[in-house]
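EI: anyone free to look at a 317-residue chain?
SC: sure, send it
EI:
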Amino acid sequence: MAGRRLAALVPVLAAVSAGLFAAAAISPFDPLVGYLGARYESTSAADRALLAHQLGTDAPWYQLYLRWVADLIGGDLGVSRGFAQPVSTLLAQRIPWTVLLVVVAMSVAVAIALGAGVWAGMRRGGVVDRTIAAACVVMQGLPPFVVSLAAIGLFAVGLGWLPPAGLTDAGADVDVAQVARHLVLPASALALSQVPWLLLAVRESVSANRSEDFVVGAVTRGIDATTIARRHILPTSLAPFVTILGVRLPEVVVGAVLVEEIFSWPGVAGAFVQSAKDLDMALLAILTVGTTGAVMLGSLLADIAVVALDPRVRADG
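SC: here you go
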């Protein structure tokens, strides 16, 4: 299974990237708008045509695509017109901040989901379980940008406890304390947007596994509830949890884009949005392909983890 999915990765990425160039060709947006900025309106049509020819943006989309593929194979990611710097340099500057945000947010989300989900699942129908389930239902209906704006309004504007945006305070050096303080709100917003789905998956799985024969047998042998939950119920409940985590990866990517934009976090999201508006294809194509590849690989790793965690899946396979 893993081999077939890895083999499908290249043609899928090729189709996605080709489709992106084809869609850009029929887009009503002019890539020169982002390149010229405020000068676009004052530039004559003849000068625009000459500039488009010099930049190569007037070529058919398939020529632009094949040129991009050839450069990519040769290790050249191209130059971003909008940011006026090599794409490789831009990614090296921004990817670490996106990785930091996503890793911290998902670590918090996973910890909350496992802790509260196991607690609720082991006490299904109780007050705590009903409270957690109701909170999750409410949170599921709130998109990440709503959670982000609410967090800014409460903790940054209302209480003044945390900064509303940016990587550091204005004029401050980039250090651990500054970054950590500015990371709290965006990471919390992204984590909270993912917790309900993960928590409910753990809750349902734990609740279902409580009635399994191996759990009943453990109870009859006099094993205490904590040990049963930790050694018998939780391991088999992790497989559905990991599956949901893999399925949610595209939502995590979208959520990260929204959160970074709202909090002015200097990750790849801002570059993604700007490259899409400017049709900055050198940057947009590599970000699209990279994101698609990351989601596909993450989903594959999640499926592999499910097989490793649940012996029943291995037996069925």
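EI: The chain is about 75% helix and 0% strand.
SC: 👍
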